[in-house]
Amino acid sequence: MYYLLGHRLWDKPIRRSVKEQVAYNTYILTLDGDVDFKPEAVLLLVDLMRRNFGVGAACGRIHPEGNGKDMVSG
């Protein structure tokens, strides 16, 4: 994914320094299809990653609700 985003960025007709700044401030967020989150959680995650450059990935706790038979639609 990062390769594709980088390729798209580097083809743009803008200065190299601007491209580097855009790349530096680009984040990729991936979730499972059944994940529900609040937008504030994403802001907190990005803030954490900006404060600590050693953070490359983060994972939150999953708290399933209900049981298997309630989650299956049919």
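Second entry:
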Amino acid sequence: MNPTPCPAASPAIAGTGITKVFRDFWGRPRAAALNDVVLTVPVGSIFGLLGPNGAGKSTLMKLLLGHLHPTAGTLLVLGRSPRDVAVKARIGYLPERTSFYANLTALETLRFFARLLGLPPNVREERIGQLLAMVGLQDARHRLVGEYSHGMRKRLGLAQALLNDPDLLLLDEPTAGMDPIGCREIKDLILTLGRRGKTILLSSHLLADIEDVCDTVMVLYGGRVQAVGPLGELLAKRGEVMIRVATPPPGTLEKVTALLRAGHPGAEPEVTSPLCTLEEYFLTVVAAAQRRQETTSGAGVGSGIAAFLRGDGALPPSSPPPAVGP
């Protein structure tokens, strides 16, 4: 029986006064990892968690997973205690460092976790096939995980975190160690899940990734909230205006800049051509190599978002399981 979802009006994560103090053997306070943190993550939000090393991000993740208990304050995840087993069934988690049995293949690893989740055989095999293709490990599904690179294990960890089609996805440094192709695929996946109404909390030191996908961010420092709000509002440069148009006819730019100088004495307009990002350039070069049918022995390009994660790939109960491997 599926657990009753939390009401749509309630946030996916709600915490007030969250404090976590680690103590030594004698019970004396040793370190305050979090101090009076207020956290509200609406359902369907892509929420970015930022902060330097030791800011309290990992501690907050562990509290959300129910691995730790707060010293003070209240915390609800999907309307219930993080330690509620029914809540854990609706959460997907990708840790910063993935750890799998080295003597299992990727296919065997996902089958193992799918059985732990209690997925029916036909659903299990369909989802595994879709996920392996999505993360670019379809051709490496029979290789031992112990032979995988860090980036390939990260791809497998992402597939494992998505097996249960979670309502809440917790991602700790999801693109660390990933190649640019994998980074772009993960960001596209996050955006797709967000559009579907999933809630995602993303912790990363790669600020460009946060900027690309998150609608709200929180900055932690010293265990305290230093800033929180919609990304567009936090990054807006007040008092400046940017106008972007196609290259105008000869003479037009000179007329426009002359008008700006006349209206704002002492202010010199900056006129320059926009640049594509290094990510965009890299992906263009790789796409050209793929069109030339050049191959790689590592992780390949994913097949796109798995159908069941888009909401259109669930198999009917009577469907036979597709062949994923021998």
